[in-house]
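Much of our argument rests on the idea that a fold can be written as discrete symbols. Part of our work consisted of pairing the sequence of a single chain with a tokenised description of its backbone. No coordinates are needed to read the tokens, only the vocabulary itself. The record that follows shows the chain in one-letter code together with its fold in token form.
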Amino acid sequence: MPRGKKNPEYTGKPPEAVRAFQVQRTTACRRGIPFLFTFTEWWAWWRIDARWEHRGNGLGKLMMARFNDAGAYSPENVYCATHEQNSRDISYETRSITNKAGWARGRARNSPLFSKGANNPNSRPVETPEGIFASATLAAEHFGFSRHYASYLAREERHGWRWADGATENWSEKSVQLEHPERAEDRESMPAEMEIRRERNRRRSETMKAKAAAKRAERLSDFRDPGSPADASPEQ
């Protein structure tokens, strides 16, 4: 299809379905997996038994899985499963081989994004109560919490944390011990604050998922075929 020309299969279809199809096709391509569905075939597959309404991430949500996690994404090589079922169906050996192959492809491309610390182009040195680390990831591993929380502490300059860009001329992946009188108190208060943030984010995520589900159901009702059983009037 010429660049810039819209696929006629997308006409009159829910925008979120088109985006989901494009994302899955692109992801499969990046993983080196053939994707043989047309949008019409893909959309028809998801509309069987109201699968689309239950599609998503998380417990109990449906996904398009491949038999034995091998081969192409094609109508004859996929089945509908929950994420839990897909995890059970794939053996540990198969999953391990798949993960190692993905990392091998990244290393073969010499991608710096597969490295941690100073070798990653997106890393920034961070100063903590226990020293300076080459990146928030390394600092988070040392303290035992998430990289996102470590970045938050450095960005907000809380509990003795801050970004060390320009503050130190020489730094490495090994921490540099610093004198800090509030180190013990800061370290004790960080886990409690992190737990509060997790609970707040969990409630926010549940609210957003509920709103998205309601909006998706409303849009699907607008695109439902006039001749479908759901739209037919009940028999008298």
